[in-house]
Amino acid sequence: MILRLALLGGNAVLDDELRKVLADLPGVALLSPAHSADADILLAADSSLAAAGDLVRAERSRRSDARVLLVANAGSAAAPRKALECGAVGVVERPLEADAVRRALAAAGCFDSSLSARSADDEGHIALLGAGGGMGTTTCSVVLASGLDRAFVLDLALAMGDAAEVAGAGVVLPDALLRIACGPVTAPAELGAAFAAGGVCRVLPAPALPEQADLIDEHGVARVLDLAVASGLRAVVDCGARLGVETVPVLERATIVAIVASDDVRGVRGARRMALLLARLGLGGSGLGMVVTRARNPRAAQALAEQAGLPLLASVKADSRVSRAREQGLAPPRGTLAGLAGLAVAPVA
What would the 3-class secondary structure string for 214-243 be? Predict the structure, then answer.
């Protein structure tokens, strides 16, 4: 099957560059701009990224299902974010190269989709579920992600998530999760462009408006996880204290599912309830365990986990520096919650 491609904007130099590249891609045919409506995918290029973004918007206003790749200069840090804003399905950089163009087309779902994702066997995602509100699930997620290589926090406490605030990261795109989960984006680069900036770790924040949470379902969250795998990233997912349809793909695919509970009666009751619900749904599997926060000592944490009928994955002592940092609008200081250090490789009984 021949993939039909057309160029929007650009100039004679880019047109010639594209034709030379396509000579090494026999499965792709270049249509004239006059027949762009018949193309399977489009390349949008102009004198600036802003102008190219306008081309994408104009095309998608005519055809809502149009797939458009944004053409940018090599190394452009702004290109992925511009693609996310205008509705492009990815970015291809100049000077154009056959292999790079093929991979951009594959990431956009045109062919060879296996090129855009790794095996699900090595995803390495970690899910944290709160046994109740105020037990430190978000703080644990942020601290854990800050200490893991190539990790980010996916904030699925959709109605009131504040992981970006806890991490001290500035939110650039308040509806980034909604755009990725429900919009036309399919290329891995757009995930990196959506992260909240700065702070102790990368965060894909929950939607700014609570009503947007109703638009994010299990398919959208699975899409985010797919993009993470394709980007070589692992998600530390703050699921909040609620099990919803959006958490199902996370719990199915996570290497570790940790129920976060405080060292008290409310914590153990909440952990039991959450563990029972997971068992009824067939979720969590062998990677299910418990993180005890504000633990008096390791022995007390172990006793609490035994009461809940769960393996103890980690225990963390109360640390006044965490609450003081939160009151000042700062990220948790490095070195806090040191008991989480081994969670990513914790053995599960």
Answer: HHCCHHHHHHHHHHHHHCCCEEEEECCCCC
